Amino acid sequence: MTALLRADGVSVRHGGRLILDAVDLEVRQGEIVTIVGPNGAGKTTLVRILVGLDRPDAGQVRRTDGLSIGYVPQRFHTESLLPLTVRRLMTLGQRAGDAAVQAALGETGAAHLTEAAVQTLSGGEMQRVLLARALLRQPDILILDEPAQGVDFRGQLDLYDLIAGLRRRHGMGVLMISHDLHVVMAATDRVICLHHHVCCVGHPEAVAQDPAYQRLFGREAAGHVALYSHDHHHVHGPDGTVQPGLVSCGHDHSGHAPGQDDPCSLPSHDAHFPPPPLSPPSGAGSRCAGGHSHD
């Protein structure tokens, strides 16, 4: 699959402190990648570099030609005394017709909020509106910095389901940033554990067992990964990347003659498969920063 966005050896220093140390990552078309790490690990700094708001001190970021990025920042400040409706917020800094605004809000389940004052929105409502605003750019990739911040647990599950649905419908890549491991790690295709440098990367369940991850978050963190799981419409390679092609779903196909429509013979992004196993498949280990496999 096409690499939409790639960071090679990205390093940043602030005031003599090393914030990012030779970070490598890529996001491919149609996959969800989540960067997890503790507060102060450099996650937001990395995001700002990836979207082009800041420049690294070393290394480079490569984007495919004409790449459209839908960016939802960690914080979106509005003046509490300034009357601002959702409709107006949607078009601040970008041009969009009313039909496009309504379509985007409808896709994120926020169409009923069009005339609501932004200051009255709940955390979950605000995130849905900001996602809709990002969709107006018709993005090839969504970059979401702490998308579940200020959202309750049930709302987080719904939000990650929504993000997965956007990926399926549009075939876009998604890069999410989080320090909340309990839901995010099970709602993604590949996890990158960041603490100024890339500690480990791979399939979520494999990363949870990685010694580098457990050193950062404690051994008990591996047992606290939520049992919430996203629908798998694809297969994972050993490093957690989404692989093109079909996957065996375990269904009985004896009733389908050759050439007949069979939902399980559709391309992997259209078929519906059961949730992933709670333990990583054989060989699907994570990789630490040194490239070693932890199976």
Automatic annotation (TrEMBL):
InterPro entries (UniProt xref): AAA+_ATPase (IPR003593), ABC_transporter-like_ATP-bd (IPR003439), ABC_transporter-like_CS (IPR017871), Metal_Ion_Import_ABC (IPR050153), P-loop_NTPase (IPR027417)
Signal peptide: none
Listed Pfam families: ABC_tran (PF00005)
UniProt cross-references to SMART domains, sorted A to Z: AAA
GO molecular function annotation: ATP binding; ATP hydrolysis activity
Record carries keyword Hydrolase: yes
Group of enzyme by EC: hydrolase
Top-level lineage group: Bacteria
The ABC transporter domain, residue ranges: 5-220
Region annotation (Disordered) ranges: 232-295
EC number(s) per entry: 3.6.3.-
Record keywords, A-Z: ATP-binding, Cell membrane, Hydrolase, Ion transport, Membrane, Nucleotide-binding, Translocase, Transport, Zinc, Zinc transport
GO terms of biological process kind: response to zinc ion; zinc ion transport
Xref: PANTHER family: METAL TRANSPORT SYSTEM ATP-BINDING PROTEIN TM_0124-RELATED, ZINC IMPORT ATP-BINDING PROTEIN ZNUC
Protein name: Zinc transport system ATP-binding protein
